[in-house]
């Protein structure tokens, strides 16, 4: 079905804004961007975009579609992942990278979506991660203590079709008894996984709370560094190695601001200084031109739900020094480049997938205007609409 949104303000996801411009698309992709011409742009549906805004669908580079360790088992984890893959479209998120699932439910759900059995966002999935014995996230990981064991685990995930190999470079907040700052996998162990993944062009991501583990991961060639607070030395190392940064600030923000007594143990591990250091990290990335990818670590519990957390994360980036355009770019072009899907999505260009959001207010004026989402198109198909009676 050919759809045209006419006379809208369009942000392309990089650095270009088109005023009073129309966009024609269908399930095969974006067909035309230009001035509205009814004769030339024969469409099955016309949406008046006057006074409205179009941006690319958001990409969240670090989520969990259920971690797959807790209660419930594989079937429950799969059902949860399938639900969330659909749910995120209601928040304008058209692509997610799942960074760890103990039952590989994210890989299975991705396969079901790609086969057309269920509907959902584009998923890049890691399935099980790789950690040391008893390391952070061990219930959703292979526990490996040698380079050979890491290599075996990486190959096992590659055989299953993982899009990303998730490495646990340090301890973490979410594993009881774990020291978040302690380095875990060695540089050599991570390099073994990176070299194997890169032979297939598969992504690597390293959970890094402490900086020693982050430095090991960067030197090992891991593509994206998750969570780390970053000091100048570590940031410069990222710049040297061309690593991407996935900040995941909203999780920590919500932990520090929660009042739930059941989460007192988690709150006690979080230091308010962490947010100061996260702000420093964002400002260092801006100064050194290190690519930042929108990422939330959402889906790990009630404190950080998958869906609404992504826009809140972008608002924090703006609070910490980004312009709204830079924040959006972190969830559009930069994220797509990191995920190596920039030929497919991440920007509004002819030939790319029609992953489009229509908004009633301009997110470039105020990033919080992301909450004025009217509808989401994913691969050219209407995937969410706010007003059921809206003429489409
Ligand atoms: Zn995570």
Features:
392 residues; alpha/beta; Urease, subunit C, domain 1; TIM Barrel; four-stranded parallel sheet; 12 helices; 17 strands; 33% helix; globular; binds zinc ion
Bound molecules: zinc ion
- What's the total number of strands? 17
**Corresponding CATH superfamily of the largest domain:** Metal-dependent hydrolases
- Number of domains as seen in the coordinates: 2
How do the SSEs run, as a string of H and E? Answer: EEEEEEHEHEEEHEHEHEHEHHHHHHEEE
C-alpha end-to-end distance: 11 Å
- What percentage of residues falls in helices of 4 or more residues? 25-40%
CATH topology of the largest domain: TIM Barrel
Largest sheet: 8 strands, mixed
| Mean of residue pLDDT values | 94
State the CATH architecture of the largest domain: Alpha-Beta Barrel
Oligomeric state of shown chains: single chain
Strand content: 15-25%
Question: Over all CA atoms, what is the radius of gyration?
Answer: 20 Å
Please work out how many helical segments DSSP would assign: 12
Q: Unreliable stretches, pLDDT < 50, 5 or more residues?
A: none
């Amino acid at each position: 079905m050919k759809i045209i949104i006419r006379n809208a303000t369009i942000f392309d996801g990089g650095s270009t804004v088109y005023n009073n411009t129309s966009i024609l698309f269908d399930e095969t992709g974006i067909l035309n961007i230009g001035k509205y011409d009814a004769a030339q742009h024969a469409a099955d549906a016309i949406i008046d975009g006057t006074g409205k805004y179009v941006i690319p669908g958001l990409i969240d580079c670090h989520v969990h579609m259920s971690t797959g360790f807790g209660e419930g088992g594989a079937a429950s984890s799969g059902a949860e992942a399938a639900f969330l893959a659909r749910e995120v479209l209601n928040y304008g998120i058209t692509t997610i990278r799942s960074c760890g699932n103990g039952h590989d439910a994210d890989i299975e759900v991705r396969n079901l979506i790609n086969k057309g059995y269920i509907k959902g966002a584009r998923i890049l999935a890691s399935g099980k991660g790789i950690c040391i014995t008893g390391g952070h996230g061990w219930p959703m990981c292979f526990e490996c203590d040698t380079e050979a064991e890491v290599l075996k685990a990486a190959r096992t995930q590659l055989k299953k079709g993982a899009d990303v190999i998730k490495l646990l470079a340090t301890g973490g907040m979410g594993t009881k008894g774990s020291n978040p700052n302690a380095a875990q996998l060695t540089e050599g162990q991570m390099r073994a996984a990176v070299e194997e993944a890169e032979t297939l062009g598969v992504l690597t991501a390293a959970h890094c709370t402490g900086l020693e583990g982050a430095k090991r991961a960067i030197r090992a060639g891991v593509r994206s560094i998750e969570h780390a607070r970053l000091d100048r030395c570590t940031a410069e190392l990222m710049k040297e190695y061309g690593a991407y940064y996935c900040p995941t600030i909203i999780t920590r923000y919500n932990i520090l601001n929660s009042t739930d007594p059941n989460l007192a143990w988690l709150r006690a591990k979080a230091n308010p200084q962490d947010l100061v250091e996260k702000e420093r990290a964002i400002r260092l990335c801006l100064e050194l031109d290190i690519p930042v990818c929108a990422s939330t670590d959402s889906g790990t519990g009630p404190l950080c739900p998958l869906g609404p957390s992504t826009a809140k994360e972008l608002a924090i980036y703006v609070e910490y020094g980004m312009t709204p355009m830079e924040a959006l770019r972190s969830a559009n072009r930069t994220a797509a480049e990191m995920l190596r899907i920039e030929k497919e999505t991440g920007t509004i260009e002819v030939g790319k997938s029609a992953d489009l959001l229509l908004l009633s207010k301009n997110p470039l004026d105020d990033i919080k205007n992301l909450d004025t989402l009217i509808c989401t198109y994913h691969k050219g198909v209407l995937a969410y609409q706010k007003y059921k009676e809206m003429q489409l």
